Structures are given as C-alpha cells and as structure tokens.
Amino acid sequence: MTDSRYLKRTIVKEEIDSKYLGEKRSLRIYLPPGYNEILSYPVVYCQDGEEFFNYGRIATHANRLILDEGLDPFIIVGVEVDTSVRTEEYAPFGNRFDAYISCFTEEIIPYVESKYPVRREADERILAGDSLGGTISLHIAMKKPELFSKVISLSGAFYEKTQQLVAAESDLSFLSLYMIVGLQEDNYTTDTGTYNFVELNRATKSLLEDRGAQIRYLEKDGKHLWGFWQNELPEALLHFLE
C-alpha cells in the first residue's frame, strides 16, 4: 500500500451533541475519490471509529478498492468512543447500552444523512465493529431492522447475554453478517473475563443461522488484534459492497 494515491484521503471531522449520552460525540467521515454531493453513496458505519481509521486503515483500503478494484464509491462514518466507558456502551449488560443505541440511531444517523448524500435504505447501510464493536453492531441491527440489515463482525465479543438475546428472536432472516474470528483467540482476557472467542463466534453463528440469518463465516490464523483485522477488512467490505 505504498501508492500515494491511496493516501490522498478526504476525512472530515464532525461532532454532535447527544442528549441521550449527555455529551459530545466525535465522528470521522471518509469521502471517496471523486466525491460529488449530487450523487448518493452506500455508507459503512464503524464502531471504534478512531481505531478503524488509525489501526484498521479503512480509508486507505477504501481508496485502493475504489481506485484499483473498481468498487463503486462509498462513504465511511467512524463513530468514536471513550474507551473508559466502551464496555458500558457496547455490551448489552452495560449501563449506557440503550442510551448509545438511541444516540446512534436517533442522533448520529439523522445528522449524517442531513449533511452527506448517503443512501437511506437498510441494505445500503453497513454496520462494522471489532470485538464488542461487533456485538453492538449486531444488537443495533436486531433492534432496528428498518435501518440496518448488514453487519461486519471482526472477532465479535458475543458473550452469554448477547447469545440469550439472539436466541430470544424468532426471525432474523433480514440479517446478513460477515463474521471472522482468529484461531488464536481461544483464551483472550478482556475487562470482564477470559473467553474463547472462537467458541463464542461458532455458537452465535449457529444461533443466527437457526433464525434465518445469512452468514459468511471465516476462521483464520490470527490474534485479537488490529494486525489481524486490518488485513481482513478489504474482503469484508467487498462482501457487501461488490
């Protein structure tokens, strides 16, 4: 990725006032090469927005896919998070979980759609997240099927509460997920305990498929790190945008 064209990225920083969270929330907006306000674009909404841009290099990947692979241009919205309250916002047992979902669906999306020509159909919006970011992405899609039907999950942290909520659903046939997990994630310690992410993802995949969701599921050599996810992002984006 040394081609300088990939590094000429247009990234706009925005900030919203969230009444649900009682604070400001920062956004990073990637605009594709040839961006034109009179056109409309598919949109990828990323949890952990700062990390997707800095460690996932998602804007550089996007430029390469658009410039070299012929992928139709798309917009990326990275939603930043305060890591000290990340679990509280992203985990279904967190005390800011409901407030974050309300902020995301009722404040961030309308704000983005008021300023940028993103498409508004559920199948033109993609949610993406790593670890607990994959978890909250799945929960947002399950709660708001009118808004989202596509989820990219990079080593999703699908703990027991998430599996219970998936199991309580009867029909998830509107959902399409791209799931990947690293085979070296079988003994990973988080702020809430040590987990076998491979087993968590296998079990959640089965629960989702039993309820009609369409799953593209991959297990590869990899650790619970951006060094693994960064290299997997292009294929994940191509899965939904090609």
UniProtKB/TrEMBL annotation:
InterPro entries: AB_hydrolase_fold, Esterase-like, Mycobacterial_A85_antigen. It comes from the Bacteria. Pfam families: Esterase. This is Enterochelin esterase. It comes from Paenibacillus woosongensis.
